[in-house]
């Protein structure tokens, strides 16, 4: 292989979005004459050796190791114990990076990878045996060698590592913790249950904010900078204090964002379902049997009906406690009932608003008459963008049954202006929000916002003991009632919120009138594209009925839901059934280029991630059950992202619209070649096959990545003349 090709590989690796954050703090040169993979110094300098001129995943491994070691060592003293901690932490992070970055059957570049990627801490003997491999990677001032550690120093370092082990890793691995199995990354796909990644995918088309989104480079940077701060706390042995302060900071930020007085009105939760369990705890504290009324639970989360009755909704909690799904959480009353308020009829159409309100009134009246407290979940908005029941009618119900009715607004889509949230809280309604839907942060970052009357309940009652399996004290208000909760901290949740916060700040910086203008241009163009596509049928857009605010943008439908023609049917009158629609959803996020004609292969390779299908009744669908796919406008559409640098606003919005049209075109392409694709059943993938995880070609052959490009100088990275293939 020619040197030019080898150095092109290195430059491609340096362009990887998840490596750029650390690379900005370093100065990188190449010297193939050194026998080690690299050497770093305490000024952020990295010299790459000959092993960094090899196969791409191996180059990425060594570069990730060098970056972690250089950044953590930067401006530290030459204390041997501190250096050893840093060396071991960098090895642990790099080993876990390899597990995420390589094929399952690919042998690791270094023998120590298996030891440092394991769930259990290596033995002291194993650490001492492998440590000499790492010592030459650090170039000390004056060239003096590090002295051997004493037995007592090794004892101290080992004790530290045992406590720190679970907190050490790349941010994309740590963010997948502190949730449930849906966050786990598939070995074959590189994606989680939601079809997204905690690494940026700037080469993919993403309109999935109604379900979950892969991180943008902005979100990844927010999470990575928080991880670096955590790592420095870990190295100093004060990680617990750091995480508790981080929880307070995030709660304080959310309080300010939504106009609340202080952080004691904010509870952090991994998901909307966790929030629903917390909500029931507040209602149950009033010492009356509770009836939960769920509005359209089929358009919220699948675990909500369990949580609404005080039951475990998965096999494992966010704190990693194994539980029995469906069994009662310790301390919750066993007499909780759950009723359903549907928003659609048996044909899948929307019920009249007055009918929904009347059904709700009857339910509340009957339950209150039976001596029960009613906990009513209302939607703003549902998976398909529904706002219901009518909020003024709900306010009238609260006035009719004072002290008998609790209302929680499920605003987990968070497709509303912060002023609306404040209005709900002023009505003494609790509000569930997330940073992971409209705001396009990583999945599993939620929050429950408390009105004053709910906060006061913590002063007069306790919480169910079983909540300790789900939540930590630092995530809740400072109250004696919360002492029953766990004393730890959910580092994954806090890192995910750090990423979401970066997106929220970017969106909040855009004036409301500009938000409205950009949403209008995008939604109008994409609506017309769906209407003119014979393979699709747009669900009648539901316009949220809200009071008018100056320059409001949330009185429009930002989730475009549509059904798809069954491949064997002549027209859309026979829509695709739910099971096959789920396959279509997965194949959109897969490279199907091998199963379509050559002329369509660029489009077939384009990875398209949109909202998961929502089940709908339909008389002509197979089994009577159709589904709606969802193409959504999220905050990132408005604020842009770093991979769009260099594009003007008009050009960027035109590109977003063109990308949305490509999603629709790929749907038709899959329908046209359904049999061949169904036989192969390709899996979704983090990146197209030809890109190897790096910036890939767009469907029209142009680059989807709009960074500064790989050059001789970028973001603080210096490449020597050797790296550019010159003598």
Q: How would you describe this structure in keywords?
A:
disordered N terminus; eight-stranded mixed beta sheet; disordered C terminus; single chain; alpha/beta; 727 residues
| Relative helix content | 25-40%
Could you tell me the radius of gyration in angstroms?
27 Å
Q: Average pLDDT, to the nearest integer?
A: 91
How does the helix and strand content classify structurally? alpha/beta
What about the largest sheet? 8 strands, mixed
Question: What is the approximate shape?
Answer: globular
Descriptive overview:
The protein has 727 residues and is an alpha/beta fold. The chain contains 23 helices and 18 strands. The strands form 4 sheets. Strands 5, 6, 7, 8, 9, 10, 11 and 12 form an 8-stranded mixed β-sheet that branches. A hairpin with a 6-residue loop joins strand 8 and strand 9. The protein is globular, with a radius of gyration of 27 Å. Mean pLDDT is 91; it is low at 1-6 and 692-727.
Structure in a nutshell:
With 727 residues, the protein is of the alpha/beta class. Helices cover 39% and strands 12% of the residues. The strands form four sheets. Strands 5, 6, 7, 8, 9, 10, 11 and 12 form an eight-stranded mixed beta sheet that branches.
Summarize the topology.
Elements: H1 3-14, H2 17-23, E1 27-30, E2 38-40, E3 45-48, H3 56-73, H4 80-101, H5 112-117, H6 124-134, H7 151-164, H8 171-174, E4 205-207, H9 217-236, H10 239-257, E5 266-269, H11 272-284, E6 290-295, H12 304-307, E7 337-341, H13 353-369, E8 373-380, E9 387-388, H14 391-400, E10 405-410, H15 418-426, E11 430-434, E12 446-449, H16 452-460, H17 491-508, H18 512-531, E13 536-538, E14 559-564, H19 578-588, H20 601-605, E15 608-617, E16 625-632, H21 635-639, H22 649-672, H23 674-680, E17 713-714, E18 717-718
Parallel strand pairs: 1-3, 4-15, 6-7, 6-8, 8-10, 10-11
Antiparallel strand pairs: 2-3, 5-12, 8-9, 11-12, 13-14, 14-16, 15-16, 17-18
Helix pairs in contact: 1-3, 2-9, 3-4, 4-7, 9-10, 9-17, 10-17, 18-22
